Amino acid sequence: MSFTHPDGLTLYGDLFSQPVRAIHAFLTLNKVPFTFKHVDLMGGENKSDWYLENIHPQGKMPAIIDKSSKGLYTLFESHAILRYVTHKYPSLVPEHWYPTDPVARARVDQYLDWHHSNMRQGCTYFLVYKYLVPSIMRKINGKDYKESDFEAYQRENNRKLMHYALKQIETFWLKPNSTSPKLSLIQSPPHTKFDSPYSHLTIADLSSACEIAQVWLLDPEEMDLERKYPLTYKWVTSVVGIKEVAEVQEEFLRKNKMKTPGTIKRQKEEQAKL
Amino acid sequence: MDQSAANLTLYLDFGSQPSRAVYSLLAHHSIPFTLIEVKIINNEHKSDYYAQINPNKKVPAITDVLPNGNTFKLSESHAIMRYLCATREAIPESYYPKGDIIRRSQIDYYLDWHHGNIRAGNEGYVMNRFIKPFITGRKTDDKVLKESMGLLKKSMQMLETYWLRDGQKYLVGDKISIADLACAAEVGQIGSIEGILEDIGGFREKYKRVYEWLERIETEIPALGETNFTSNLMLEQFWEMLENKISPKL
Is the ipTM of this complex over 0.90? Predict the structure, then answer.
């Protein structure tokens, strides 16, 4: 069966993934025309023949494919994708998301790099070792499953890393922005006119908040955000409260099948309302 | 607009792979800067003095005096290299182009992929195989070692079959970029340390394209070739000390 890519920009991903939500929200709120193609991450659809042949030979996701009269352009890695979108659509995407001034831009780049080995590593792999691996192993081993030393070690290491990263957000990243009453990770350039609800934000805020919110929604007691990291709590809730971010987050929560304290609590609350 | 010599200061440890990438970008293009060594082995990166430069306590970092007289502080090697490409005219366009957003985005893709693959694999393996056992006196759990080495091998395989597919000369297209510097500073370590080579199962034979590419980068950018070489000598000595210290107990 031959595969045809839609015209224009297509985002391939699963809203279960934090980077996919960040990209989806970014495109939507800037009114960049695009098609969203759901690829079932948990079901391993990214390892299917059609994905390996048409998108990436090793199943890497998310991906964007830009189809124009010039041909097909494929790109991976959420931060590379967010930057590409700001460059490709300068008339749609306001400059504050990724400033052109080299100093202001370098500050955003500094966060986007730090994010990988700190926030993303900690948050994602904490969830993997605490919930995902046990849930898969239980399906295989049933009641006999017991967390191995290796799994405990990975879970604990990443949990500590996650809290270290949150502490850095609270005490280092959120600190210097005194030019705006609104919280953001990156100091806004001097000439910024805070004339829109988002002009204090950058793509770093979007990427980071989506990552933090994932753990906060699935395991709120572990993160204890409001009590332990009050500034971070205020900032994360303001970013994921943006309509286009909240929408994709809602969809992820609705479809999520992973049983975690946060989702169980949510289900009970919903049932109580009925 | 080029900024003068006294303005730029680079804080680094030559043993740090990201430090060597930034250093080679500057040295190769004869960009004037002040070099300050921050020796990790002496815990200098944890000093109060260095915390003023980089509160994240990592190397490399730069400070740059701007036209308005303010001092701009920046950490994270990829962010530093992008910033230098944007502000130092002596660096050719191909390293990180301003206009060609396709090439630029492919470099961005590499630099992001690098963190969780080449960097995590190489640094993770060296940490788990050598550094932690040296400090704690205990051998790292086999499963942890297996996972680290698995990531390193997987990353090398991606370099061999994806980034360097079709026999291309550089990681992104047919010209050198900051992606090549970032990667070569890491990969340059692998072929030289007997312990790593043994565990990975060979370099030149298994990863032929990567081997040729590494030779090319280290030859074309002597500042990287030389600093990789010196660092490897030190690492080799360090590895020998480790083997002597820890093998009686294992």
Answer: yes
